[in-house]
Amino acid sequence: MTKKIKAGVIGVGYLGRFHAEKYAALPDVELVGVADLDPDRAQEVAGPLHTRAFTDYLQLLLELGAIGFALAVLLGWCVVRQAVRALAMKPAGDNRYMGLASMGALTAISIHSFTDFNLYIPANAMLLAWIAGLIAGLEFLPRRQHNWKQVGVAKHIDVRPVRL
Q1: Which label site among 7, 51, 110, 111 has the fewest CB atoms less than 10 Å from its CB?
Q2: DSSP annotation of 152
Q3: Cβ(36)–Cβ(14) under 8 Å?
Q4: 102 and 75 in one domain?
C-alpha cells in the first residue's frame, strides 16, 4: 500500500471549493482539511468531503506536517534569496534600494509575527504577501557584455583539435 500525500486548501471560495473536491477525489491524496476566514463556509465545504474545517491557515499547515512546513520554508528562502540578490548585485534603477527596504520590512514582520504568533491575522499575512510580491518583482540588468574588439581579442576563437 502506498502512503497518501497530505493536502490542504486555504481559502474555499468559488475556486477553492473545486480544488478541495478534486483533492478529495484523488486516490493517493488525503485531504487533511480546508481553511477559510468564514467558519460557516469552511464547514460547508469540509462536511461533504469528510475532512476538517479550519479558520486558521497556520493550524492547517501544522496538520500537513513536514511537507507543508518545507514548502513554506522553500517559498521564504526564494523570497529572501531574491532580496539578497538585489542587495549584492547592481540591479536596474532603484531596485537595490527597494530590495534593501523590502528585506528590512520582511525582517521586521517576521520578528513581529514569530514573537507574537500573529501571522494568522489577515492584515499581517497580507502585509507579508505584499512584501514578498515586491521582492519577487524586482528586475535585474543582464550581466555586462564584454566588447571584445576594445580588448583586442577576437570574438570567435577557432578551437579545432590539432593533429600531430
Answers
A1: 111
A2: T
A3: no
A4: yes
Q: Are residues 110 and 87 in the same domain?
A: yes
- Distance of alpha carbon 148 from the chain centroid: 40
Contact present, 4 and 30 (Cβ < 8 Å): yes
Going by C-alpha positions, the residue among 36, 65, 69 that lies closest to residue 53 is 36
Per-residue pLDDT of the chain (164 residues; tens, 9 = 90+): 578 888 899 889 888 899 999 999 999 999 999 999 899 999 999 999 999 999 888 788 778 876 666 766 777 787 778 777 777 766 556 677 777 787 788 778 777 766 665 655 677 777 777 887 777 777 765 555 545 455 454 555 555 555 65
Distance CA 111, CA 108 (A): 5
* CA–CA dist 163, 152 (Å, integer): 28
End-to-end CA distance of the chain: 63
Total of domains in the chain: 2
Whether 112 is covered by a domain: the verdict is yes
